[in-house]
Write a structure and sequence with these properties.
Chain lengths: 496, 485
């Protein structure tokens, strides 16, 4: 069995497993099977990445040749994202059992089944080469996610989930309209085929509208300012495990699909010419960087703080894209990967604090550095990574992003990037000061260090932050290969 | 004959020491042994480099490949050796002082304290040995972050406020200015390796290089150029051993070392003269020199006065670099050493006075000279060294700086040096005069006596070192001269 035949199982294993998990009783069994399925999916993704870096892999479903049948089409870009998604899901699951036992005490089968559905949806979006398939998988993952968010023990989780449902559905509808327009104009749903046929009809209003619809629709999923409104509450009130999973995966996949449409389907010399896309993305990215960091500095609830920080970090990624250079795209892909590591580590640390103390308010963290030294040290180290201190993964992202801005001659962007990094210093340092430099008030409960089951996965993530800050062969190599693929295949707009 | 270990090994010693100290938490004796061991081994390792280096052996070591074509690499060159010798010798002297001071002062959390102390020294060694801008930046940031817990050590709201200013200014300047400047150099020359004579000449125009220079100089917050000097007075909330070794030597000297290194190994002294903005930085530094002295005169708090004095003295070295003559650069490098020995003595004394009498203000020092003759005698020597009066080492560095200003034809800078020296006298000698010449105020308890010997011996030794440097000034001079060969 060669690697191409194995590839679809990365999506299929979680999808099929979810049906089984839904029916499993108890607590251990559903988790174990979920973990197994996710791990298999991650292993397959890890095997696919080296193969896909050299040549584009294609798997036709049911042996129907591509333009007619559905194909999975994997190159350096989506193999990288698939590995990220399945890898982060595996690590999140390691953290999950203790916390989920608390937050979802009964009937964990359906909960984990929803998780597997969301995962397979995200992986499906990533791997497929069919535009309609993107929509279908997007709906699978989104519907599962709405339900997962609603599992939150806080009653506000229901409202957050409902809001997410409304906005997410609007986004998906926009995407569907866009894809429908493209289908109408080209008569195909295969993305590669679409790219070949689009030049003939490029100067029509329908195609331009399709591009606009798709970008707005995916912008919503991506939480690009001003379409980010669903994100802070969804992240804040979802069960901690769900937040951790979403923070590392959902927005990353949305960004990837957006890039796939902008660069591969439409080609950059189309997307960036018919619409002032570079300017729009740049302005929104900068606004997101600032607004997100600014609001994060004043958040009392730390999960909300990290959520707003995510809005800012999405801004960094989109900023890299908006430069439309190989360096900029490399920076975007790098940050996509590194930010998943950073944010997952941070959310795990805060989730651990919530598990032990029952609160994630900054005032309730006072003096916690003494009582939960391992957890808070993990938070501090991951915090250094989000600031972009050297030897962390965050520094590598920032280096490439600034380098990309310098090479494009955009000096003012360099200024803005470093300025928002300083804002990250502020919101991370508030927590560090509260935890270490203040005494624990007498009215707060004394707590102990968290169980190892939560600490070990958190520290694995922290270690990965430093590992990928020191050994950048995998990340930089894969990110630049991904950027090359995106730009390389994007010339279809000019070629006859 | 001392064994020669690899450069990365030297940098690693204090870090390993920090781990050992942290693991010895709660066991005071073991912790003290580790403190001693790491500083002694570190000094021996540095000394082990001297002989092979003088024989002309050059060692370069790539420790790590961080990004494609970007490495963490170390190389020993004369300027770095000066800085290494300075910080390693003073670390050894500061170790007993810190142990004595922290124990008698009743401080807690000593393992965290000493571990961070050691990390800071390791970071300073990393800066001294850095072979490229990236390596320098990495260790520069480690130094900033690792000293934060030291400044905030007592945990009072005042300490936290001070530490916040400290970290915010240092991180802000380095991330906002230094990092973009480094990436700019990388993008425009394709190299960030240090090379004698500079790497920018012929690669970028003097105008562009001028902006890089401004970014680098203000980005090196640790050199405390105005208006980014506020962190240094803010850092004075730290326990005195921190102010002494870190905020008179390791941290601030790392700052001016970076300035000198950039001037000599990135811009190159000849190219620096062609850059129109060099004079701008020069005048900012000269202004800082005078303004900080003026502020120092009005500080009644002894440590604050010394802190502003440091701000002023650091600018001497920046001026030395920006004058862009060989003599001035040599003077700058020598001043690193001379001021290091002088100022650490002054801080040791300030701490000893506080331990013995709980006095922190200059106006309270009346009559202390007879009670604490060793301490106040050492204070006098330290003050004379910083002012630059024979027979103390400070004379030689200022001599060369003034000669350099004369050579470069910068009359204003020459005047600034002279005025600043007068100001030095005006703010450094009054504490001594009060202590020796005025009587103890009536009603003052006469029970004040010298601080514990663990504190008095080190400050006597550093004062003796300041005298010795007058006679052995040839060593730093020779090393600095070797930079230009």
């Amino acid at each position: 069995m060669n690697i191409v035949d194995l590839m679809p199982f990365s999506v299929l294993v979680p999808l099929i497993a979810s049906a089984v998990v839904a029916m499993l009783p108890g607590r251990t069994l559903p988790w174990a099977l979920t973990f197994l399925a996710t791990l298999i999916s991650a292993v397959i993704a890890a095997l696919v990445l080296p193969a896909a870096t050299d040549v584009t892999l294609s798997y036709p479903f049911g042996n129907w040749p591509p333009p007619i049948g559905i194909e999975y089409r994997v190159d350096a870009a989506n193999a990288f994202v698939a590995l990220l998604v399945s890898g982060m899901a595996t690590l999140a699951l390691l953290w999950a059992p203790i916390s989920v036992n608390r937050e979802v005490p009964k009937r964990q089968g359906p909960f984990y089944a929803l998780f597997l559905l969301a995962l397979s949806g995200l992986l499906g979006i990533t791997l497929t080469g069919d535009a309609f398939n993107v929509f279908v998988f997007l709906e699978i993952s989104s519907l599962a996610t709405y339900a997962l968010v609603a599992y939150g023990s806080d009653r506000r989780a229901l409202l957050a989930a409902f809001r997410y449902l409304i906005m997410g559905t609007i986004g998906a509808t926009f995407l569907l309209i866009g894809i429908a327009f493209l289908y109408m104009m080209t008569g195909t749903l295969n993305m590669a085929d679409m790219a070949e046929r689009l030049p003939e009809v490029r100067d029509t209003r329908s195609v331009r509208a399709a591009l606009a619809f798709i970008i707005v629709g995916l912008g919503l999923k991506l939480a690009l300012l001003p379409l980010h409104l669903w994100l802070p509450n969804a992240y804040a009130y979802a069960p901690n495990f769900v937040t951790i999973f979403l923070a590392g995966t959902a927005t990353k996949v949305a960004l990837y699909v957006m890039l796939r449409f902008i660069f591969t389907v439409f080609a950059p010399d189309y997307s960036f010419v018919v619409l002032p896309l570079a300017t729009v993305l740049m302005v929104l990215a900068v606004a997101g960087m600032f607004a997100g960091s600014w609001v994060a500095m004043f958040q009392v609830h730390l999960k909300r703080m990290l959520a707003y920080s995510s809005v800012a970090q999405v801004g960094y990624m989109v900023l890299g894209v908006s430069l439309v250079t190989a360096a900029g795209l490399t920076a975007a892909f790098l940050h996509l990967f590194n930010h998943a590591l950073i944010k997952t580590a941070l959310f795990m640390a805060i989730g651990t604090v919530m598990y032990q103390t029952g609160s994630a308010k900054i005032d309730d963290l006072r003096g916690l550095g003494r009582q939960m030294p391992w957890t808070m040290t993990a938070f501090a180290l991951a915090g250094l990574s989000i600031i972009g201190v050297p030897t962390t993964a965050g520094f590598i992202s920032k280096w490439y992003l600034i380098l990309a801005a310098v090479e494009s001659g955009a000096w003012w962007l360099v200024g803005l990037i470093v300025l928002t990094s300083m804002m990250a210093v502020v919101y991370v340092w508030r927590v560090i000061e509260a935890a270490w430099m203040t005494e624990r008030p007498a009215n707060l409960p004394m707590v102990r260090e968290a169980p190892l089951g939560l600490l070990v996965p958190t520290w694995i993530l922290v270690a990965l932050n430093f590992y990928f800050g020191l050994d950048t062969r995998l990340t930089v190599g894969a990110a630049s290969a991904a950027a090359e693929v995106m730009l390389g295949s994007g010339v279809s707009g000019v070629n006859p | 004959m001392l064994p020669q270990i690899s450069l990365a090994g030297i940098v690693l010693i204090p870090f390993l020491g920090a781990v050992a100290i942290a693991l010895a938490a709660g066991r005071a004796r073991l912790r003290n042994i580790f403190c001693w061991a790491s500083s002694i081994i570190f000094l021996l390792a540095v000394l082990g480099q001297v002989a092979p280096f003088l024989e002309g052996e050059t060692s370069r070591q790539v420790a790590w490949q961080l990004l494609p074509e970007l490495t963490i690499a170390f190389q020993l060159e004369p300027l770095g050796l000066v800085f290494l010798l300075l910080s390693s010798s003073l670390w050894l002297l500061a170790t007993p002082y810190a142990i004595g001071y922290m124990a008698h002062g009743g401080y807690t959390n000593l393992s965290r304290f000493f571990a961070c102390y050691a990390i800071a020294l390791g970071a300073a060694a990393g800066i001294a040995l850095a072979d490229n801008l990236l390596t320098m930046f990495v260790f520069y940031e480690i130094l900033s972050v690792s000293t934060y817990p030291l400044v905030a050590h007592t945990g009072t709201s005042k300490a936290r406020r001070g530490a916040r200013v400290y970290l915010a200014l240092l991180l802000m300047t380095s991330i906002c200015f230094w990092l973009p400047a480094m990436i700019w150099v990388w993008a425009s020359t394709g190299s960030i390796d240090f090379a004698a004579g500079g790497i920018l000449e012929g690669q970028v125009s003097p105008a562009v290089a001028g902006w890089m220079l401004v970014l680098f100089m203000f980005g090196t917050g640790k050199a405390a150029l105005m208006p980014f000097h506020r962190w240094l007075p803010a850092a004075m909330v730290a326990p005195t051993p921190v102010s002494a070794l870190l905020h008179a030597v390791a941290v601030v000297k790392a700052g001016v070392f970076v300035v000198l290194k950039l001037a000599l190994y990135v811009f190159g002294i000849d190219f620096l003269r062609e850059i129109p903005l060099t004079d701008f930085v020069l005048y900012v530094a000269a202004f800082t020199m005078l303004a900080a002295s003026l502020i120092a005169m009005h500080q009644d708090n002894l440590k604050a006065r010394l802190a502003y004095s440091t701000v002023s003295q650091l600018s001497y070295i920046v001026v030395g670099a920006m004058l862009a003559t060989q003599v001035a650069a040599i003077g700058g490098g020598m001043h690193m050493v001379m001021h290091g020995y002088g100022k650490i003595t002054l801080f040791f004394c300030a701490g000893a006075i506080y331990l013995a009498s709980k006095k922190t203000l200059v106006s309270e020092l009346d009559g202390l000279g007879r009670r604490m003759p060793f301490t106040m005698g050492a204070f006098l020597l330290g003050a004379l060294c910083v002012i630059g009066i024979p027979p103390l080492g400070g004379l030689w560095s200022k001599w060369h700086l003034v000669t350099g200003a004369f050579d470069a034809g910068h009359g204003i800078v020459l005047v600034a040096f002279l005025v600043s020296t007068l100001l030095n006298i005006a703010y450094l000698l009054p504490p001594v005069l009060r202590a020796f010449l005025k009587p103890l105020p009536a009603g003052e308890s006469s029970s004040i006596k010298e601080a514990p010997w663990l504190c008095v011996v080190p400050l006597t030794l550093t004062a003796a070192g300041a005298i010795a440097l007058f006679f052995f000034a040839g060593i730093p001079y020779g090393l600095m001269e070797a930079v230009f060969e």
